[in-house]
Design a protein that fits this description.
35% strand; 18 strands; 230 residues; 5-stranded mixed sheet; Fumarylacetoacetase_C_sf; hydrolase; 5 helices; mainly beta; 6-stranded mixed sheet; metal ion binding; metal-binding; 12% helix
């Protein structure tokens, strides 16, 4: 087998970067749960500023802009969750909040696709959140082009109808706080992607639906829902 492996090595997952021929190599995907008050309310949660809920998705769950994804297996309640994603150019342990933005390479539009019926069953979040094709991401806009995203409209339409419509400024835990807190649990590195949580309006999608996500200043993300994987 080529390159000294006994089986074929997986390809490096990467995302396009606005204005550059080179791509961004993805190392890990971290996600923040329940980070907008209105979404906490719609999920029946506590509105207090509790510590962030962190979970991960596998790197190869990433889906490129323009793709058609399968309707997830083993669910009858397949949901969209529109999110701002932060991508890192460097990292470390115990990053100070005041230094956190120095580690950010750029931002992109993302979706945290969810098997809602499984998530609500009390079973581990991995099978509800971390399945194949569960992390569509749009092109990355570098900080040098957009600055640091701390406010602006975040919106998702399904077949042209607005489902989620909010503002990044309403994040309970802001981007520097997320990075600082996450780095107390994990050593962060260049290539890490952090989904920052979804606003209210999450809901089901079905085969044939077109989802378009937009965040002010960033490139949009468009995906379509296909049939269940054979």
């Amino acid at each position: 087998m080529a390159n000294g492996y006994v089986v074929e090595a997986p390809q490096q997952v990467s995302l396009p970067v606005v204005g550059k021929a080179e791509r961004f190599p993805v190392r890990r995907i971290y996600c923040v749960g329940r980070n907008y008050v209105a979404h906490v309310r719609e999920m029946g949660g506590n509105e207090d500023r509790d510590p962030p809920i962190f979970f991960q998705k596998p790197t190869d769950a990433i889906v490129q802009d323009g793709a058609t994804i399968h309707y997830a297996t083993m669910t009858k309640d397949f949901h969209h969750e529109m999110e701002l994603a932060v991508v890192l150019k460097s990292g470390g342990y115990n990053i100070a909040e005041s230094d956190a933005l120095d580690h950010v390479y750029g931002y992109c539009v993302s979706l945290d696709m969810t098997r809602r019926d499984i998530q609500g069953s009390g079973r581990p979040w991995e099978i509800a959140k971390s399945f194949d094709q569960s992390c569509p991401c749009g092109p990355i806009t570098p900080v040098e082009k957009v600055g640091h995203v701390s406010s602006g409209n975040i919106k998702l339409t399904v077949n042209g109808e607005a489902r989620q419509d909010s503002d990044i400024s309403l994040l309970i835990w802001k981007v520097p706080e997320i990075i600082a807190n996450l780095s107390t649990y994990f050593e962060l590195h260049a290539g890490d992607v952090i989904l920052t949580g979804t606003p209210h309006g999450v809901g089901p999608v079905g085969p044939g639906d077109e989802l378009v996500g937009t965040i002010a200043g960033l490139e949009p993300l468009t995906i379509r829902i296909g049939t269940v994987a054979a």
